[in-house]
Every structure is written in structure tokens, then in C-alpha cells.
Fold each of these.
Amino acid sequence: MSSQQRTADMLSVEEARDRILALVPILEVERRPLLETIGQVLADEIIAPFDIPPMENSAMDGYAVRYEDIRGATASRPRQLSVIGHMAAGQMSDSKVRRGTAIRIMTGATIPSGADTVVPFEETDEKERKAAGRALDHVAVRREVTLGEAVRPRGEDVMKGDLVLPQGAVLRPSELGVLASLGYGQVRVIRRPVIAIVATGDELLEPGQPSSPGKIYDSNSYSVAASVVKYGGTPRLLGIARDTMESMNKKLDEGLAADLLITSAGVSKGDYDMVKDVLAARGEITFWSVRMRPAKPLAFGILHGLDGRKVPHLGLPGNPVSAMVAFEELGRPALLKMLGYTRLSKPTVEAVLEDPIFNNDGRRVYARVIVSKRDDTYHARLSGPQGSNLLTSMARANGLAICPEDVPVMRVGQRVKVRMLDWDAEQL
Ligand code: AMP
Ligand code: MG
């Protein structure tokens, strides 16, 4: 078969992603404590039940006064006021600011009735009075501030009845702060998907176990589970299935309680692992060749749970970089869809290549690169050799440079799109 015929049989990354997304549901809504909802999607629109701030309050530490009383004040002609009370943040006062009086007020305290302006301490003689040991029952205002100075109006940020957050908003720290300011201790969100993760292979060892000749440690479970956490899912590590029907079936039984089951390895052509047979027997699973490098062999489909539930299954390739790149491109969108996200793609930047990228068989190449910024331009250099088993070059990379399917080589100096994995302030 020519390489062109072969690539024609392959699915594009987009086709693979769309097929996966078509079979992955948006999950149900649940009520959660506010802090646990970071990164989740809001299920209801949030209408302000009251104004924020709820009362007119002071933006400064100073004196609440009537503007009339301090108009025209200067250092040489200060206005003397008698101080009739003190108010800390959160306090209300029964006293009214009448002509010739002031109330000493702290930031956030409610503006007392009668007052319309706050004069900051710096514009008064309070410091000198204190230094001289004089009573604070009077204060001299030395500068005319503007009417309404340092008074934060009621409802300045939010008015009762405002649409504060739309349904579907992704909750970031600022949204959590807004919800807290509206008094929400809990909030209704689309729940996090539970993602079961199974490694497969007789050669695998659990990290933490003693090493053994001919064996390698299972890294896929950890890189994938960590990605699941990073993007807002709940991983359930089920450990290693051996290359036997029995072991594989046992792990699948456990995995079918999840919202999505991810396995790694055992899906490549010519593999004589049990994985394929077992999967095929337990649902509708298709084995795909995706037009990408790394991560060509992939399995996806629906497995039948014991209780009639249908559980989507994503079978990642075994090689550690392939597993991670396939998760980024195909697992992450599925996870985000379940979480209720509508924007599923990652930000890309355009960078100038400092190493060539070769593409000898018409696949989309995801090259591990280090993106850095110099003279306001992003530059991308390979983070190391690009074998799909070489995980440390993934660890050194902060992005994946994308060489399109039909481009046999991208040369030094050419512009390349880079999907950013991380935005590291040190490098950018
Ligand atoms: P396979 O698809 O089973 O042929 O696996 C492809 C390659 O990935 C082999 O070199 C495996 O040893 C390796 N591999 C499979 N699973 C893992 C894993 N969980 N962690 C690290 N390497 C793995
Ligand atoms: Mg294997």
C-alpha cells in the first residue's frame, strides 16, 4: 500500500474528535460547596438578590461630613467640626451628622445619615492632634474635597435584579468571589466526570514497587490522571490490567462505574494483547488510525455497563508521549464537554521555528517545543528527540507545535502554530 492510500483510510484529528464528542454526554447538575466548584460550569443564571455594596459606605478612613460644612476649607482657613462618633467597618450609627459635626469613619463603614462626603484623615489635623495628645472630639478640615468624595454608592458594583453571571459561565476565582459576595455558600453546577484509568500490559510495574528486569513503570496512568485533574475531572486510578482476558475483564467491570473509561496500550495494529478482543466483546468499539503523530492507533466506543449503562471508552496508545498527546487532543475535549464547556480548544500562539519539523508520511505532527518570547516574538525550539516513548522531552516542553498533514517539512524561520500546554512566566 502506498502511504497516500494509507492516509486516506485514516481519520483526521477533527473527525476523531467529532465522533468522540457525539457519543459523550453533558453530565447532570448538582449542588456543591462553593470552593469545590472551581473550573465547573454554572447551571443557573445568577440574578442579584440585593445591591452590592448593600449600603452607601466609605472608601477611605476619614471623617463623614456634610459637604456644605467643608466647602472652601484651606490650610489657612480650616473648618472646625465637632466629632460626635466613631464608626468601624460593619457598624451602623444612630447618630446623624448635623451642621458643624462629623463622624470618624473607617473604610467599609456605612455612611451615617446626614453625611454626603468623606474627608480622608490626611486632609485633617488628626495626626497633629494625636501627636499633641489632644482629644479627638474636634477635627479641622484643611482642604475642600469634592461632594461625594470617598463615598461608595449603594449598588455601585451590582444592582438588585442584575444578571450577574450567565448560565454556562465557567467558574474561576473571580466568579467564585462574586458568588460569595452575593451570599452563595453552595452553587448548582454541572458535575465533574469521574474518569476511570486502566493501564494494560504484562511489562508494567506500579510506581512505588521494586524495579524488576525487563519491566517498566506505568507512567501513563499518572500523566493521564494528572491531566484529568488539571482539566477538572475526577480520576479513578484502577491500576494495571495484565494481558489476560480475566485480568482485563476484571478491570473493565470496575471501570464501568465511571463516566468515561480510559485505557492505555494494546490498541496498535498487530498487537496480540488481549485488550482489543476483550473490548470488542463488551461493547461497540472501533479501532482507529488517526492521522496524527504521535498517537496514531486509538480505540473509541461505548462499553455496556452491568446495569445497562453505556460508558464511553477511550483507548489511548501505549507509548507515553502518544498517550499524553492523544489525551490532549481527544480526551480533553471529551472531558470538557462532559463538564459542560462549550469552548473546547486550547489557545495557540504563532511562533518562529528554531528547529525544522519533518513530516514524512502525511500525518499532522505534534512536535514538543519550548516556546520563549524575545523581542515581542514567540520562538519555538524542539524540547528534545521526538520519539513517542521519550517522555522527558514532553516534560521539558511547554507547547506542541503543529505541522499540518500536507506539509512535508517546516524549516527554521518559518512560522508555526503552537498549542500551548502551559504558560510559564519564566519562559514567556
Ligand atoms: P502497546 O500498545 O501495548 O504495544 O504499547 C506500546 C508501548 O508503550 C510499549 O513499549 C509499552 O511498554 C509502552 N507502554 C504501554 N503502557 C504503558 C504505560 N502504562 N506506561 C508506560 N509505558 C507504557
Ligand atoms: Mg501492551
Amino acid sequence: MWAGRILCAALSRAPRGCRPQSALAQLRGILEEELEGIREAGTWKSERVITSRQGPRIHVDGVSGGIINFCANNYLGLSSHPEVIQAGLQALEEFGAGLSSVRFICGTQSIHKDLEAKIARFHQREDAILYPSCFDANAGLFEALLTPEDAVLSDELNHASIIDGIRLCKAHKYRYRHLDVADLEAKLQEAQKHRLRLVATDGTFSMDGDIAPLQDICRLASQYGALVFVDDCHATGFLGATGRGTDELLGVMDQVAIINSTLGKALGGASGGYTTGPGSLVSLLRQRARPYLFSNSLPPAVVGCASKALDLLMENNAIVQSMAAKTQRFRRKMEAAGFTISGANHPICPVMLGDARLASCMADDMQKRERGRSNAERQRRARQRSMSPGANQGLRRRWLFRRECPSLAEEWP
Ligand code: PLP
């Protein structure tokens, strides 16, 4: 008994009693073990702290001088476009910092309605609904739309948020092999017994930049009476002739029923997501989608930035075309320098080193070298490099190597 009291006193200096403290000590032990496992596997993700705006050139804590950033999903460079920033400031000034409410209680402003209408117009769909993120749009859709009478057929490499969204719904679940239309057809045949069939796929897959075979998927969907849903986060704003996305690129805009996408990548890069599609579906989501019903409205500044990004894209096609040209140039030059770049002709240009640990070590190493260099030393090496025949080799050290290298846009003044 005394021993128990002494242990209790040792574990707990705070007046909370010994039981919760010992549970906490046990939890700490479990967590430490788990964390050590991640470190040992070489998959520990450390976060570099950016001290500047997002852009092709950034400043990072602990590294003197700027570095080139190939890791963000700031595909069009709009997250630091002066007009986008100005629109955000104006919305902040006019509509305040935030709504302190969800949409249906007292959180809908005119700018939310305007942005939803603009998104629907951009995608040439009937209506659109905003969410705090595309993760939320994916969490909200399937549960609200599908019942135990229905079926969802999902590419095995779909984004985590689609997978989680599908987990939340009670429909029958079929998983087809990545991009494999023959397997999808087999699963569609099996799924004929259900009321609705929904094929769910990323438009472009973020890890390798590979593109879903939407023409085949839509053909099968029509043959087997299925709907097609596309998560187009890595295509909205820049794929296709006018940047509408993967469905435009592959000529199936009229066959993809539902699109979810993000405002947090090409469209200004702040945050927010949406579903666009049939008006009745959007109406149902406003009644039933839990992340819409139970999470705060998008802040006005975020709405202002995204709205301006869409204006810029709808006014003029030049940004989209310049992105496509830069992608081709980057892929060509990297391959000529001896790197293997995988994926389709998409601005996600995964530099394949073939080993996750190696990629992570290489990124850290490049930053350490950068950190260790004095200004004078850097200038001396830059001079040397520019005089040497393999002048661009030195650049490799300055890239943050990740699997995605899409930020190829020009820096805005
Ligand atoms: N879907 C895909 C394919 C994504 O790549 C991402 C983000 O990385 C999301 C959804 C989530 O988007 P958001 O950041 O708006 O939640």
C-alpha cells in the first residue's frame, strides 16, 4: 500500500491522482516505440519551416539565402500573384476575418454564393458547394449520396481522402487495380445487382502524375449504367486546353457526373474544396454532407483569393499554356541530365531515386550543404560552376527532392 502511494506520488506531482498519470506514462511508452519505428524505417517526415511567401524561390529557416522550391502544388504560381493577394485583402477588409459559424446557421455570405456559381461555370456543371477542404468534400460526398443498396468502384491508388470518404459510406465497395479498365469492367459486371454504381477515381494521381483513362472509364460507365466521379485536385486550373481539368484534357466533360477539387493547389493555394455536378446532388449535400454541416464556413480572404484565381484563368489562357511549356522543358532537361522522371506529361515530375530513405537522406544532405556554406563560399562555387562544362550539375544540390516537383511557374513580382 505504502509502495503504491510512493509510486503514485512519484508519477504525479499534479493533483490529478495516480491512475491517469500512469495511463499517460504507458501511452508515452507506446508512442515512443511507434515513433522509433518510423525513424528506423527511414520514413520520418520532418517539416522545413518556410520564412517567406510560397513560390518557386523560398526562404527556409536555418538556410541562409533562398532555395528553389520544386515541392509545392502551387502549379500556376497564383498563391503569390499580386492580384490574388489584393483580392484576399479586399475580402478580408469588406467581409471580416471569418463567420464564426457553419454555412447553414449564419455563415453564408454573398461571396460564398458567388464563388460557388463561378466554380460551376468554370467546370460547366449545374451547381457547386464549398467545403473547408477537398478532404472534406471527399468525406462528405459518398456517405450522403450512397446507401447500402448502391455500389462504389474505386481505383486502388485513389487519394487517402477518397478512401476515407468511401469508408464512411454504407455502399458495397469494389476496388479495381490501378488504371486497369479490364479489372474495372469485371467489377462493374459484378456490381450490376446494385441500385446505383459510382466509379471513383483521381483524375491525375498525385504520387506519379499518371492520368486516369477517363475515356475508357466513361465508356464502361455508360455501358454498365454507372456514374463517374473524379477527384481533380491535381488537374483543376491547368490540365486541358483551358485548364478545366482531366475531363477537358480527355474530352469527356459531358460524361463525368461529379467533380471534387481543391482551392488549395492551383487555384490560389490557400485552402478549401468543393463538389460540382448536378443541382439536385449539390442540394442534397447541403442537407446531408457532415463536413459541410458541421464545420466553419470558408474565411472571406480565402474565398476572395480563390475567386480571383478563377477570374484570371477564365479571362486568359496564357498562364495555362505557359505551365504546359515549362513542364515539357523541365522533363526534357532533367532526362538529358540523366534523371528518371516518371508519370505522364504532367507537371508532377517525380524524380525516381528508387528508394524512399535515399530520397529523404538526399534532401536533408542538400540542405545541410546549403546551410554549411558561407556567402563567400557560395559565390566562389557559383563562379566555378558557371565556368565548368557541367554547369547545371550543381543545381541538383539545391533542389528539395521529393516525389513531386510541380512548381514551375514564374515568380510573380
Ligand atoms: N484529393 C487529392 C487527389 C489530393 O491530392 C488532395 C491533397 O493533397 C486532396 C484531395 C485534399 O485536398 P485539400 O488539401 O483541399 O484537403
Amino acid sequence: MRFRSLTATFALLFLLQGCGPAAPPPSSAPARVDAPQPAGVVEALVPAPAPARADDGMVVSAHVLASRIGDDILRKGGNAVDAAIATGFALAVVYPTAGNIGGGGFMVVRFPDGRATTIEFREKAPMAAHPRMWLDSAGEYDRQRHHFSHMAVGVPGTVAGFALAHERYGSLPWADLVEPAVRLATYGFIMTPGLAASLQGILPAFARYPASVQAYSRGGVPYQVGDTVRFTDLGRTLARIRDHGREGFYAGETARLLVAEMERGGGLITLEDLRRYRANEREPIRGSYRGYGVIGMPPPSSGGIALVEMLNILEGFDLASMGHNTAPYVHHLAEAMRRAYRDRAAFVADPDFEDVPVARLTDKSYAAELRREIRPAEATPSSPSDIAVPAESDQTTHYSIVDGDGLAVSTTYTLEYGYGSRIVVPGAGFLLNNEMGDFNAAPGLTTTGGLIGTEPNLAEPEKRMLSSMTPTILERPDGSLFAVLGTPGGRTIINSVLQVTLNLIEFDMGVLEAVSAPRFHHQWLPDEIRAEEGAFDDARIADLERRGHRLDLRDGRWGTVHAIRMAPDGTRLGAPDPRNTDAAAVGH
Ligand code: DON
């Protein structure tokens, strides 16, 4: 509650400033500055435990200022795609943990007439990448190189993705969508509790990179809650993107600075890699659960396929009568999860490089075969010859938007780890991803310690690494829009989206209750159920153990599902996940 009211206070401070400068602009500021906006109607700084309500447009994101900027765009007559672009650029400033221009992600769009599409802007491997690039001279796997080096950086996709979304489906001028982020970075914003704590935690990891320390602290001293912070290099980069579109990032000064940092630190990305990067529009994955429609992200994300596969398996069980998070419920979900994650590891990768059997994996009769293997009171052990998958951190971000016409956008994007590679491009002020860590480590290198070495997701020139991101849109059985959701959380993402989907459909929970409920996770190997702290009482734990499940209950919390549920009368009900204290739903 305390953080909620603080969040509201910071939002209010921003409103009182009319989105204007917190102090006189630095002399290097771009000349072009919009007039301050009228405060307008902000109904939804989420006084938990109620969801935010809006009759027209609604934005739910990880930071109140980004939600506010998205809502401003809707009130100016922009559509949900415009708002998604503006919110995404704003998060690159106020939520540097995962908001980005140096990373990549996925956007699912559903139009008011029921058509849907997706924009894929996943990072890709540089042309010099190869499957053994993370082995040292002695042929040993070098985890540091794989996850925390200039060689861990993939060619960023976010700016190209937003530009493609705008070109195909935007309605306001591009510059209007980037400008609010330019202003936030250039003139500053007030440090929130969530960001201050997060930056304080990451500061030691930034120490190797002077530009990172310079950008995200006061000369090595952490920012304090209430400080006004400015990111002037980032503001100049965003201004180039505002003025030159994708070329403001993939060519010219920004590209030159990025490549100079690659050369300095032994990275592989060249000007040619940047020039060749393209985002893609791809057909969504479509599925159904008890008549509700599911619209999800296709490869190179595994999210849509695995979500639909699990829902297909679970449709044949009476989950509602088992009860939410009871031992039988957890058992049946865990059995579905283990099977879908096995298929994910075996079959799913960049579709431009591998033949992914999408139709088979999302087919209801295939799910029926898998369902028949599931025993009601006994876990199926994951085969010892199977492969283990490593744990991931919880630093990606998702936002959900519905505009006044019912156009819905579900976007998840990331730098991979929190603050990605931790490398800020000197002079350009933005963080680079470490997404190459989502490729498998090396051919055949499969260990019980958590590495996988299967073929489909090995690094190759210009290949996209496999993702778990699962931006999703749900439809009611009558074909109308029902909900928009997604989350960070590495491999837990797909299971979090699954559980919130079931909370909404099977248990008819309100949106805030649905995103707040404790979650659990099984990913095939390691063969165990992980659960959030306090998810199960002793009796449930004993029951699950009797069924043969191993439990790992050490985890705190994971995932932040920022969601919108449509009420039957069309009211947009928005809920930021209370696991993220800076998040907010803003609507009108
Ligand atoms: O694409 C993926 O699946 C991961 N790179 C996402 C990383 C992530 O969610 C980390 N923390 N939330």
C-alpha cells in the first residue's frame, strides 16, 4: 500500500509538471519541444486492491510514467499501436531494467473486427556468429562470454519493430510517439522507489563499464528516491530516432557509436549487421480453450505454441472442480507443462532456419495423445536422457493496451537479463542486450547442470534465438475481445500466462485477483515444481510429494503480469501486477 501511494505521488508530481521540464533544459537538448499537455483525466493510478476502470482507452505497464504517456497518445487520437510505440520508447527511459531500444521483443495486435497479426522484432545473431562461439581456446564452455560479454549482444530489434508497427498500423506521426521519451530523457523524471532500489542493486555489475556507471548513477553514488534524473545521451539518441525513424538507430551516429563499442570490447556486430536488420510481420498462433480464443506469438518465440499445447492438454480435465492451486490442479498443470517444455526444447527455434512443426504441436488430437499419458495421481518422471534447461532471471517487461475502438496490443520486450549485458553504448546512452545467451551453449553440450546443446537453437549467422516471451490476447466464445496479458520471467513466462489465462477463464477471477494469485512452474527438466513463496500449504506439499513430484519452494516471486480484462459492458479493467511496485494502469 505504501508503495502504491508513493507511486501515485510520483505520477502526480509528473502531472503537476504538465510533463514539462523538471529543470531548465541542458544546452545540448534538442530544439523541438511540445507544449505542456493538459493533465486530462487520469482515473487509474490503481488504488489496490481494485482494478483500474476506463470506458475508453487503457494502458498497463511497468512504470506509471510510461502508462501515462501511452494514455496521452490515446487521448490525442492515437490508436493502441501508436500508444504501444510511445509506451515502449518511454519504458526505455524510465524502466531501464528491461525497457529498451537496445533489445528486442514481440507485439501481438488484435483489430476490432477480430483479425490479428504479430510484429516480431527479436534480436538476431551477427553475421560472424557460429555455434562454438562461446567455447574458449581449450574448447571449454565460457559462461561469462555467453551471457556477460560483448559477444553476448544480439543485433537489436526494438526500433525496427516499432517502425514496422507504425508503418503498417500506426495513425499519428512517428515523431509524436518518440517525442515524449525524448523529453523524459532530456529534461528528467523523478526517481521512483522501484527504480532506485533496482539501480542500487545493479551498480556493482556496471563497474566494468564507465559509460554505464555514468549513465545510471551520480558518479558512482546511487540515485535516491525523489532525485530528478536525466539521461542526456539517451535523449540525443532518441531524438535521432524521432527525426530519422529506424535509420536514426541502424545508421549514422547511433550505429557508429554502437559499432565503436563492439570494436572496443571484442563484440561481433558490424555496420552491415545493423543495416541488414529487419523486423517481421508474422501470422499469430491461434488456439482455443473451452470456446475462448487464444492469439499468441509464433516462433522464434515458443510462447504461443507452448501455451496452446498446454491449454489443449488441460481442456480434457475438469480443472474447476479440482479447485484453484489444489494438489490435483497443480499435478495436472505440471504434467502438461513438462510435456510442452520438452517439445519446446526439441522442436522450436527460428522458423527461418528450422522447420518447426507448428500445426502438429498446436493440434488438439496431438494434445489428446499427450493427455492419455498423464496419470491422475502419479508424476511421469522426465527421462534421464533428456536435457536440462538453465534458470533465468526475471527481467523483461510486458505491457497491455486497449484503445477506444477495441484495438488491442500485447507487447513483451527485453534486454534478456536485468539491464541486459550491462553495457551502455558510450555517447549513445542506451543499454545493449545479452540475448545471445538464449542460444544453446554449444553443439552437443548437454549437462545436468543446466546446459542444452540440441541442434535447432544453436547460434548461426543472422539466426534469431529462441524466446519464451508470450504476449497474448484472449477472445470470448462470441468472438469479442476478452483480455490482454503477458509477463517477464524467462522460461516461467509461458506458465505464468497459462495460469493467469486459467484464472480468468476457468475460475472467472477478476483481473487483479488473476494476476496476483501465487504461481508455480515446471519446465520438464530439472524435474521439479517450483512455486512462489507461500503458494502451497503443508498438506498440499505432502500431497504433491506423494504423487511423486519434487518441489523447490525457495523462489521468492516471479513474473509481473500487467493485464486488461474487458467487462461485458466494454469497461476496460486494468491491473498491474502487485509484484512490481512502480507499475500502473492509466486510462480514461
Ligand atoms: O526471450 C526470452 O525468453 C528471454 N530472453 C526472456 C528473458 C526474461 O524474461 C528474463 N526475465 N524476465
Amino acid sequence: MQTMKLNNGILIPAIGYGTWQTPDGDAVTNGIKAAVDYGYRHVDTAAAYENEEGVGKGILESGIAREELFVTSKVWNSERGYDTTLAAFEKSLKRLKFDYLDLYLIHWPASASRFENWEQINLDTWRAMTELYKAGKIKAIGVSNFKPHHLKALMETEVKPMVNQIEFHPGMLELQQETLDYCKENDIIVEGWSPLGTGRMLNNPVLIEIAEKVNRSVAQVCIRWCIQHGVLPLPKSITPTRIKQNLQVFDFELDEDDMGRIDALDNFGYSGSDPDTVRF
Ligand code: A2P
């Protein structure tokens, strides 16, 4: 499994198994077991996905040693703030039945559209994350859905974010370019949620044409496109054949022409969840 290096030296497997919208119980437990079996060593969950128990169970039943896996969870919006984040972290650990996390993220920034003191709220949440990191309970800390103006204050604190997880798939390049550039300049690894646009990419004629040309599926083309943009993809699937297929993306390359055509698919497949205006 290829890895990327976080700004604190920790290695992160270069693709992760996504679990957003996978129900708790057998669906997520069996999905994780299949994923580990096929070679995934990185699992992404969140308190808000309400499947951490099933994720933990799948990891336990997969038989793999805990330290062989890189596991991420996230603090939900209702738990922002210092004390609440500390408590939310402990609850996630308990549901996962873990004694540490590899990566913990602030799921969404508090933003100016909802909070006058949004920047202070993010700093208070970050202070709790930093404390947990320094206590060794988390190997790396970061954020999700942060734009450069949300990240700015955190960059001036003692521990800088190591990861920013954002929506990323064909059609999103222009919208996310500024965040990609900022993260690159500041040594923050960008992870991509919904690399298949939650399925919205699959019928696009340009993507179908390129997939046929390179003899891969549209899903593999989307995942590969993320990788070639330096973004760590987190494809979600509960279907064993797809789980396996989504990992087979390190043995082919999209040429400049294909990349250019996909880059040009602008403003397509966006979920519409803008961190500055979301109502959750
Ligand atoms: P399923 O979980 O039923 O296999 P995203 O990662 O962008 O959120 O997309 C997830 C969606 O894409 C899910 O509906 C998932 O279905 C579907 N999916 C995942 N991998 C593939 C694939 N290789 N081919 C087709 N559909 C896929």
C-alpha cells in the first residue's frame, strides 16, 4: 500500500475506505472486513455517520492488528468547543472500542453565516484536538471542509493541521483550487470525500469515454484523477467487487490529455454543501 507523509512525519495509506452513508451493523462491519481483506489499510468514519460501533467491530473481526490500520473519525458540529470536543472524542473511542485514533478531524468549520464568534469556536475546538494529540491519544489531527479563511487562525497555533478533508471529484476542480493551493503551500494533505460524487459521476459521457480508452471503470478513473491531483481519495462502497476495484488504481495513469479533459468538466456533480452556508 502506497503512503503519503503528514507534516508530523506520520505515514498515511494513500487511499482510504469511506463509510459515509453506510449504515451501522452488518453493512459496515462486512464492508470493513472485505476492505481489509482486499488490502485497504485506512478507514474513514465520523461520529455523524453513526456507524463507529460497526466500524470497530469490523476491524476487530478482520483479525488485523489495530496498529496495522489507519483509522480516522471526526467531531460533529454540535460538539464544537473545548470541553465538548474532549468528551466527543472519548465517546468515539468507546464506540470504536479503541484506545487511540490515527486521525481526528473537525468535521465542518463554524462559519460566519451562523456564528459571530466562529473563529473563536474553531480555535476552542482546535485547542482540545491539540491537547489530545499532545497526550498521544491521536497520532494526527486535522480539519474537514475548511476553506483557507477558516484555516488561517489555526495555522497560527502551536500545532498546525495535518489534513483537510474536502469534497473532491471531477467537476470540483475550480471550486476547490484555492483550498488545494493553500493546503499545498502549508503542507496539509488534502483528502477527498465523495470521489465518485456519491455516484453522480458514473453516467458522464466524457468520463465513460476515457474509462473505455484506458480500459478501466469510471469509478477507477475518478479515483485516479484525485490521486494525480495529489488528493487522497476516500471512495465508499459496500459492494465487494467495487471495494476491490476501487483499490486497483495504482497500476495505470491518466495522460495529460485525459487529465485536461476531466479538469475541464467544470461545475458538475457538486453536492452543494458550501462550508460557508450549510445549515448544519
Ligand atoms: P455501493 O456502496 O452500493 O457499492 P462516493 O465514494 O463518491 O461517496 O460514492 C459512493 C457511491 O458510489 C455508492 O452509491 C457506491 O455504491 C457507489 N460506488 C462505489 N464504488 C463504485 C464502483 N466501483 N462502481 C460503481 N459504483 C460505485
